[in-house]
Amino acid sequence: MTEKEIQKLKDENAALRAEVNKLKDEMVRLVGRNLDLTERMEVDMELRRRVEVARELLDGNINRQRNADLQDDGQLMAMIELKVEQERSYQQPDFDSKALAQVLGVSHERLMRLFRHQSIHRTPDAYIDNLRTLYALRLLREHPQYTIAVIAEDAGFSSVRTLQRRVQEAIGMTPVDYRIMLTRDM
Fold first, then answer.
1. Tens place of pLDDT per residue across the chain (186 aa)
2. With contact defined as beta carbons under 8 Å apart, do 107 and 101 qualify?
3. Percent helix, strand and coil across the chain, each rounded to 5?
4. Any idea what DSSP says for residue 136?
5. C-alpha Rg value of the chain to the nearest Å
6. Could you give the CA distance from residue 102 to residue 111 in angstroms, rounded to a whole number?
7. Within the chain, how many helices (H) and strands (E) appear?
């Protein structure tokens, strides 16, 4: 190959790399946008669920909801969301499905059946992990000065590695990459 042909190949390679980098940046931007839209949708769904619960409370169903032998799965799911999210129990690393069952006064088996049939999360532990992951993503966004270790601890993860795995599974990038993406968009 001549020097000219080699230079031409190098130029083409550089142009292709630049295009790949543009595509990566666009993908990161789209993932961030998708996350924002997903979070907005989850907030809207959460508000709708809370309004439904408030209506039931106003209708005088308080005693029925406090009953440990609740028959209505929808009410029990609403109670779970209110208790876990208001009290932020998920921020405690040792909070798991057994602790949730104890808080609600229902058996662990009842809780497992409930999640299998009434939730998009297959298990209560998956639900708790999802809450932790969403909270960690919020912390990454709102507190860029926090270290990844502090965010893992605040969100209730038992280790930084667990946080990294959960964020990678949820959005396809590490917490550090997510933070870099956020700073690039500013």
1. 899 999 999 999 999 999 998 988 888 888 888 888 888 888 778 878 777 877 776 665 444 444 444 457 777 777 887 778 777 888 888 888 898 888 888 888 888 888 887 667 678 888 888 889 999 999 999 998 999 999 999 999 989 999 999 999 888 899 998 888 888 755
2. yes
3. 80, 0, 20
4. H
5. 23
6. 10
7. 9, 0
70 is written with which tokens? 């609740």
Q: How many other C-beta atoms can be found within 10 angstroms of the C-beta atom of residue 25? A: 13
Place of tokens 């408030």: 54
- Write out the two tokens for 97: 């499905």
What the block records as the tokens of 75 is 């009410």
Which tokens belong to 153?
């601890």
- Residue 107 has which token pair? 């058996």
Give every CB contact of residue 98 below 8 A, 6+ residues apart in sequence: 108
